[in-house]
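Hey,
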Amino acid sequence: MYATERQDAIERELLTAGRVSVVDLARDFGVTTETVRRDLDALERAGALRRVHGGAVAASRGGTSETAVADRGAVRGDEKARIAVRAAEALAGLGGSIFIDAGTTTAAFAREFAARTPVDGAARLELVTHAVPIAFDLGAHADLTLTLIGGRVRGLTAAAVGSAAVEAISQLRPDVAVIGTNGISAAFGLSTPDPEEAAVKRAVVSAARRVIVLADTSKVGEEYLVRFAGLEDIDVLVTETTPPAELGDALKSADVEVWTA
């Protein structure tokens, strides 16, 4: 296979997966890792991708790039649904209080969890969120008690951010927080592009007694501008496949449970 053919194939893979690995590409193409790195260097110079540790991501997936929540809903929908079901099944019937973070996977969880909450005979349950779409969905369930955290609503995520939201969250002590993330890596932990979103997530993680992170594999290995939690700050990761070795080892060292959907 010529270099141009390999590079075309790499671009096609980036379009579908969003990320490529040097080791995987070398195996698939039957070439050395040095050859693959030269291909990636050439594609980066052409603006087709961005090099990261161990491989490359699509050029649009920079540390500060972010897609609006309305556009993210259709991306990896099956995987997000599986993760949402796995988490909702585990928490069904829980009493106490749950904080639900903003995001498309957490929104899917909120719908699944609400559907599994019995109308009669359930333990008292308090739900809290700062996400307007999630509050809209949950508000339709008369059997659920819901608190919406206020603040300036950020258009990209339709979630309340800013000092008022952070202060309100800091006064809470939810039993469980269900958190979304843009990236999760062994070295950097959990991260997101926007500092205000990160401040809210950090406050939720600090406030909760137990932190459950929902993240499909497109988030694995990603590192965005602002770190809001380390792996040692979370209790459970819910994802659809077994994490790669580096992240898996780091999660084990941090005593994080992994629930596979």
